[in-house]
């Protein structure tokens, strides 16, 4: 039951100050966020890809309140693309973006987010890679899916994320599978009301499997966003049943979590993509990682005790 409490703390300025000021915080944050600048992250990209892994890069950021901040987020991704170009990694290094960073929550936010994200998607396509639109809370999803549909008219490889705990997701998955989209399926990391989302873990897991079956049987490209060993095994079986080859779907896991499993799946020939975040505004991202899994919270708590 700590997850909702931690998610609430992720939106608290007071908790942000307390956590950020703790001496132990940076070493622990480094487990999940390996750098703050492009210069720091490029060696990480090289190291992971040399190990046979793929990446999706996230420039972390929260609480965009002005159009200028949204443009700065756009420019940060364009800088990343410029640094990726000489590495010649193609789709082995793609990007994940949250439309809230591009101004989605501001006045006229739908149009502003589309305006800001389009050059990022187009620049990524020019260097042979892709962008995936991350899902946020349920109130933002109609806008996200509309932007996704618009971007795919010119850049059809643009992907999106769906969340298994939302009631609407099974219908969203059918539509996306029929349209041939790239789709990352995750359980969901936002506190959603019972009116729109499953609240029990077993219900979420069952929905995840139903939705993944739809994606595997469809025309698109499924991306399995999970660290759950049981769901990974089920995903492999669903892929075999659907007749999918190893390059017709992929696994995705977070940087800093189950690194040995990343390497094991890659060694077996699976496409294994590591979600790798970087940037200075790490607090919200870090707190959601703690909320998602009790083991992450225990790791942080032990570090506080041993280092404090």
Set out the fold topology:
Elements: H1 2-9, H2 13-21, H3 25-32, H4 38-50, E1 54-59, H5 67-84, E2 93-97, H6 109-126, E3 131-133, H7 141-154, E4 159-163, H8 169-179, E5 182-186, H9 201-217, E6 221-225, H10 229-241, E7 250-254, H11 259-267, E8 272-278, H12 283-292, H13 294-307
Parallel strand pairs: 1-2, 1-8, 2-3, 3-4, 4-5, 5-6, 6-7, 7-8
Helix pairs in contact: 1-12, 5-6, 6-7, 8-9, 9-10, 12-13
Description of the structure:
- The chain is α/β, with parallel strands linked by helices and 308 residues long.
- The protein has 2 domains: 60 residues, no CATH class; 226 residues, TIM Barrel.
- The longest helix has 18 residues.
- The C terminus is likely disordered.
- Its cofactor is FAD.
Keywords:
single chain; 308 residues; alpha/beta; TIM Barrel; 2 domains; eight-stranded parallel beta barrel; 8 strands; 53% helix; 13% strand; disordered C terminus
Summarize it.
Helices cover 53% and strands 13% of the residues. The protein is of the alpha/beta class. One of its GO terms (molecular function) is nucleotide binding.
Portion in strands: 5-15%
Order of helices and strands: HHHHEHEHEHEHEHEHEHEHH
Characterize the main sheet: 8 strands, parallel, barrel
Rg measurement, Å: 18 Å
Keywords: FAD, Flavoprotein, Nucleotide-binding, Oxidoreductase, Proline metabolism
Binding site for FAD: 163, 187-189, 226-227
Enzyme class: oxidoreductase
Catalytic activity: L-proline + a quinone = (S)-1-pyrroline-5-carboxylate + a quinol + H(+)
């Amino acid at each position: 039951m700590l997850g909702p409490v931690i998610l609430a703390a992720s939106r608290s300025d007071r908790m942000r100050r307390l956590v950020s000021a703790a001496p132990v915080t940076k070493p622990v944050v480094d487990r999940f966020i390996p750098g703050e600048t492009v210069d720091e992250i490029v060696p990480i990209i090289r190291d992971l890809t040399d190990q046979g892994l793929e990446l999706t890069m996230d420039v972390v950021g929260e609480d965009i309140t002005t159009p200028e901040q949204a443009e700065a987020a756009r420019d940060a991704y364009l800088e990343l693309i410029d640094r990726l170009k000489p590495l010649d990694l193609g789709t082995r290094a793609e990007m994940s973006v949250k439309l809230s960073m591009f101004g989605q929550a501001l006045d006229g936010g739908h149009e502003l987010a589309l305006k800001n994200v389009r050059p990022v998607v187009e620049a990524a396509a020019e260097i042979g890679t892709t962008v995936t639109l991350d899902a946020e809370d349920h109130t933002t999803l109609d806008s996200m899916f509309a932007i996704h549909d618009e971007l795919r008219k010119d850049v059809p490889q643009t992907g999106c994320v769906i969340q298994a705990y939302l009631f609407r997701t099974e219908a969203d998955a059918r539509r996306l599978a029929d349209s041939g989209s790239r789709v990352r399926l995750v359980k969901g990391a936002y506190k959603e009301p019972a009116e729109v989302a499953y609240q029990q873990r077993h219900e979420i897991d069952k929905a995840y499997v139903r939705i993944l079956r739809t994606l595997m049987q469809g025309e698109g490209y499924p991306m399995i966003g999970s660290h759950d060993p049981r769901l990974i095994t089920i995903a492999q079986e669903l892929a075999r049943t659907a007749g999918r080859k190893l390059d017709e779907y992929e696994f995705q896991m977070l940087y800093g979590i189950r690194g040995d499993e990343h390497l094991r799946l890659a060694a077996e020939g699976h496409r294994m993509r590591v979600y790798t975040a970087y940037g200075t505004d790490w607090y919200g991202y870090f707190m959601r990682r703690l909320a998602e899994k009790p083991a992450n919270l225990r790791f942080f708590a032990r570090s506080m005790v041993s280092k404090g």
